[in-house]
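From the thread on structure requests for the teaching lab: each student submitted one protein with a one-line request. Submission from student K.M.:

"Model MFS transporter from Duganella aquatilis, tokens only."
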Amino acid sequence: MNIPDSALAARDGLPPDARRIAMLSVAIGVGMSALDTAIANTALPAIADQLHTTPAASVWIVNVYQLAMVATLLPFAALGEVIGYRRVCLFGIAMFTAASLACALAWSLPSLVIARLFQGIGGAAMMGVNTAMVRAIFPAKLHGHGFGLNSLVVAVGFAVGPTAASLILAVASWPWLFAINVPLGVIAVALGRRVLPHTHRASHKIDAPTAILNVFAFGLLILTFGDAAHQEGWRKLLPEVIATLIFFGLLLRRQAGHAAPMLPVDLFRRPLFTLSALTAVCTFAAQGLAFVSLPFYFETTLGRSPIETGFLMTPWAALVAVMAPIAGRLSDRYPAGALGGIGTALLSSGLVAMLMLPPNPTVLDIGWRMAWCGIGFGFFQAPNLKAIMGSAPPARAGGASGIVATARLIGQASGAALVAYCFTLSATRGTSYALILAAVFAGVACIASFSRLVVSNEL
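Reply posted by the TA:
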């Protein structure tokens, strides 16, 4: 199939054939990134054992990936506005693929940590422009459908990561967790070079000092979350909190007056954008609280194996897969505030139902509750994505796309940190406390989402 260059530069999406191939390329890239965010947690014990390192030291395999992603997301999103989302997306996929090969070939903990650092940078480049790229691939009338497909890939990647890791480790060694990305990444780059659309480029330039301040500000923020999750003392946490605030202050001062700030404070002046970002942070915090705490309940309290735990988590992912495309299509016809509010209300009620599990629950008792949560979570994502991207001007699609990914990762990181706090309060009731917090976060997201029905006509 020959696709003319004019089609690749289409202002209102790509033709159907090119659109499918372009979406496949983007989906492979973002799917790998989302999967690897979750997959390494499950593999940490096996990796620590084979590399002859301590569990505490092996945590850096996860931490450095998260640090690199969150610290560089917004700079890559801003770069996409300047040089084009296509270039940044292809660079991200290529970097992630090469780093995955380096991870598979790693011979020591330091070599694996360095490879994971570059893998996180590649993932940030993909995630930073991912939503803007989807917006360029699909015509305006199908944006909801495109965001639904994108939400499906991201949510399922995060959700099935632990199960996929368990299955791979049952038949192969840990390097295969990363090696499987290599052929997929090569395919994604080949397809992307062929069909990913060229987009309008902004006239402003990237300010390097601002990018550096952004890296330190968000890097310290995630480092603080991670140290809090590992129950570090205030002697370590307090200086990190102070340093984080200082760098955020310097970042805001440096970019003040810029037409397209890297940390897009200009977009937060739009009520619909702010409420949509708040909805995303709270909903992903609820997911993070549930996904980190529930495995402890399944394995420690119920005595399930890691593989059984993975399958008990599967109904959530399965129903997200079913609902995300449906919600995406509905968002082309109905207000995002109403759809997102319904989804987060279902999620909150599902989390409350999890709190009411009987003392010795059956698989069915757990399964329908997890499925209910998955329905709610899947119903929220695509409409919320459309609201965030639709409330930003086309020229600021990169900044909006960066906030989409940043909100997701900050929500998940804060959820994980709060789980650690819940278990410090009570080792036996930590999961219950975490689920209560998760239900509260989902409730706040519900209020924020329905509030968009009031402000949507003001923009």
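TA comment: The radius of gyration is 21 Å. Residues 11-454 form a domain with the Growth Hormone; Chain: A; fold (CATH 1.20.1250.20).
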